[in-house]
Amino acid sequence: MSSIDPTTTTIETEADSASAPPDVRHGVLRRTFRAKRAWIGAIALALITLWAFVGPLLAPYNATDSDVLAFGAAPGGGHWFGTNDIGQDVYAQTLVGLQKSIIIGLIAGPLATLIAGFVGAIAGYFGGVADRVIVWVIDLLLVIPSFFILVLVSPIFKQLSWVALVVLISVFSWMIMARVVRGQTMSLRERDFVKAARYMGVKPLTIIRRHIIPNVASLLIIDATLGVGAAIIFESTLSYFGFGIQVPDVSLGSLLASYSNAAVTRPWLFALPAATLIATVLATSLLGDAFRDAIDPTSGANRD
Amino acid sequence: MAGFLLKRLLNYLALTSVATVLGYLLVSSTLDPIARFLGRNPPIPQASIDTTLSRLGVNPDTPLLARLGNWIVNLVTTGSLGTSTRGTEVTADIFARSGTSLRLLIIGTILGAIIGIAIGVWGAVRQYKAPDQITTYASFVVLATPVFVLAVLLMITATAINRTTDSQIFNFTGEYTPGLSGGFFTLLGDRIVHLLLPTISLTVFAVASYSRYQRSAMLDVMSADYIRTARSKGRTRGSAMIRHGVRVALIPMSTFFAYSFGLVLTGASVTELAFSWHGMGEYLITSIRNNDINAAAGTILFTSILVLISGTLADFLYAALDPRVRV
């Protein structure tokens, strides 16, 4: 989830939004939604989520029953996405997979951001040995690609539930954001309001919670939003190669894996669930990018 | 600057060693080398399983740290990474497979970087105009697509084209057609045909991410004071952009390129798997599926050495190109 790229997140120390009082933060929302793609992203995301959770109630077939009158049917009639070889409705299956993918994205993305926020803030605030150790651990975790590490540990979480997979995805995707937060914290530490709190004897962890985290909140919101889409892609790729979600659970990735062989002869089996996946990720990234433009003074609309 | 680079290199060396050791421990504790021998008919005697596992150095009866020690001693004294479960030398496997990965990836990576940088500059110069909007949204769509989805969609399209033209224009399984006989040009042509789809897939993703990076680096530079100075000196906008803009914006891109080029051999495992190329990424995945500890540990060592090389290279380029970094 290296969603925030290092070239655009060099926020200056004087960045106004970093110390924004509440009314200016409302300005952030207003500025975000001045961009058309923020509306597209937000509305699409809301509709897709609604569709995933309400859609199955309105669908004519459920995901597991076989329709003996339609084996391997093309889209049409009651089966909007067609059926598979044993007559199961692909539309209903897509919605079940979409539910799981959305839940995974919504947990794993923000969880990774949470880890990044606290680890980065602790490294930046305390400095010294703590900082060195944390930076070194971050570098170490970046040496081997996360995809490889997750494939390596997959024999472990295959026996556990999908929740273990979600946690592991977050555990291996917070590193780059933690670096950004660390840099921000190092400059915030020298600001007057943090110094004042320190001299008043406020405990370090309280300062981090009350003064540091709220001031990097905007960065964290961007990362969490973009992280949702990144986690969905990560999970679907793992599941596609059999290292992610295991039966009986279904996600869009494992659904696509089971239909990729039939894709050449009956493209809709693959293309329609794939389009659903792309639309979901695209909605989160449009929203996240609009947030970034509104918050980050060095990107997009705020440049002169 | 030499001191700075030396310090970075030592740091990378330490990271590589620790990552390899941790990787070996992780692989040894998650993979189950006995699984391959169980459930066979007729059953394999325990003694012969033990002999095989000991010969590979992966017998779980030996303490984990002793196995690690043997592996390291073996690596340092003979340069060997042990034997895979198929009886081949892991070092030889890695050399053969990294060659395959390199042949698969080199064109797509370079092509993607060049096109991506050009589109990024174009988008930044025409900010908010139609070309910028179109390329921005297109790259959003590409980056929202998982690699395997694009691979399968390309295969569907290629098959459809093959069928309608009733020919074999696209041939996309593996690196070459096994058993094909013919002259040098027949074989070369066969390889090029096999390269077509994976290269398109790699190029599309590289273009999408490079153009985003380059656009943002270029926009940073365009609002800088020295561009205004160049303009007020009398340079035209285009000339100021090229002489002072693009050249500066390329500095962060060159380190990005150095870094991603180092990771190229392992970075496209999904593409390799999707198009059935027997490269490094596929090697790691199959070794995990076969519970092959030596092969998986060797791949991790190889990956971390590549990170070491590309990281040092990126640092060196950054220090060499950007005078502000020289300390």
TrEMBL record, chain A:
<dbReference type="InterPro" id="IPR025966">
    <property type="entry name" value="OppC_N"/>
</dbReference>
<feature type="transmembrane region" description="Helical">
    <location>
        <begin position="38"/>
        <end position="59"/>
    </location>
</feature>
<keyword id="KW-0813">Transport</keyword>
<dbReference type="GO" id="GO:0005886">
    <property type="term" value="C:plasma membrane"/>
</dbReference>
<dbReference type="Pfam" id="PF12911">
    <property type="entry name" value="OppC_N"/>
</dbReference>
<dbReference type="GO" id="GO:0055085">
    <property type="term" value="P:transmembrane transport"/>
</dbReference>
<feature type="region of interest" description="Disordered">
    <location>
        <begin position="1"/>
        <end position="21"/>
    </location>
</feature>
<keyword id="KW-0812">Transmembrane</keyword>
<feature type="domain" description="ABC transmembrane type-1">
    <location>
        <begin position="98"/>
        <end position="288"/>
    </location>
</feature>
<dbReference type="InterPro" id="IPR035906">
    <property type="entry name" value="MetI-like_sf"/>
</dbReference>
<feature type="transmembrane region" description="Helical">
    <location>
        <begin position="212"/>
        <end position="234"/>
    </location>
</feature>
<comment type="similarity">
    <text>Belongs to the binding-protein-dependent transport system permease family. OppBC subfamily.</text>
</comment>
<feature type="transmembrane region" description="Helical">
    <location>
        <begin position="102"/>
        <end position="126"/>
    </location>
</feature>
<feature type="transmembrane region" description="Helical">
    <location>
        <begin position="133"/>
        <end position="154"/>
    </location>
</feature>
<keyword id="KW-0653">Protein transport</keyword>
<dbReference type="GO" id="GO:0015031">
    <property type="term" value="P:protein transport"/>
</dbReference>
<protein>
    <recommendedName>
        <fullName>Oligopeptide transport system permease protein OppC</fullName>
    </recommendedName>
</protein>
<feature type="transmembrane region" description="Helical">
    <location>
        <begin position="160"/>
        <end position="181"/>
    </location>
</feature>
<keyword id="KW-0997">Cell inner membrane</keyword>
<keyword id="KW-1003">Cell membrane</keyword>
<dbReference type="Pfam" id="PF00528">
    <property type="entry name" value="BPD_transp_1"/>
</dbReference>
<feature type="transmembrane region" description="Helical">
    <location>
        <begin position="268"/>
        <end position="287"/>
    </location>
</feature>
TrEMBL record, chain B:
<dbReference type="GO" id="GO:0055085">
    <property type="term" value="P:transmembrane transport"/>
</dbReference>
<keyword id="KW-1003">Cell membrane</keyword>
<keyword id="KW-0472">Membrane</keyword>
<feature type="transmembrane region" description="Helical">
    <location>
        <begin position="256"/>
        <end position="275"/>
    </location>
</feature>
<feature type="transmembrane region" description="Helical">
    <location>
        <begin position="137"/>
        <end position="161"/>
    </location>
</feature>
<feature type="transmembrane region" description="Helical">
    <location>
        <begin position="192"/>
        <end position="210"/>
    </location>
</feature>
<keyword id="KW-0812">Transmembrane</keyword>
<feature type="transmembrane region" description="Helical">
    <location>
        <begin position="295"/>
        <end position="321"/>
    </location>
</feature>
<dbReference type="InterPro" id="IPR000515">
    <property type="entry name" value="MetI-like"/>
</dbReference>
<dbReference type="GO" id="GO:0005886">
    <property type="term" value="C:plasma membrane"/>
</dbReference>
<keyword id="KW-1133">Transmembrane helix</keyword>
<dbReference type="Pfam" id="PF00528">
    <property type="entry name" value="BPD_transp_1"/>
</dbReference>
<protein>
    <submittedName>
        <fullName>ABC transporter permease</fullName>
    </submittedName>
</protein>
<feature type="transmembrane region" description="Helical">
    <location>
        <begin position="104"/>
        <end position="125"/>
    </location>
</feature>
<dbReference type="InterPro" id="IPR035906">
    <property type="entry name" value="MetI-like_sf"/>
</dbReference>
<feature type="domain" description="ABC transmembrane type-1">
    <location>
        <begin position="98"/>
        <end position="318"/>
    </location>
</feature>
<feature type="transmembrane region" description="Helical">
    <location>
        <begin position="9"/>
        <end position="27"/>
    </location>
</feature>
<comment type="similarity">
    <text>Belongs to the binding-protein-dependent transport system permease family.</text>
</comment>
<keyword id="KW-0813">Transport</keyword>
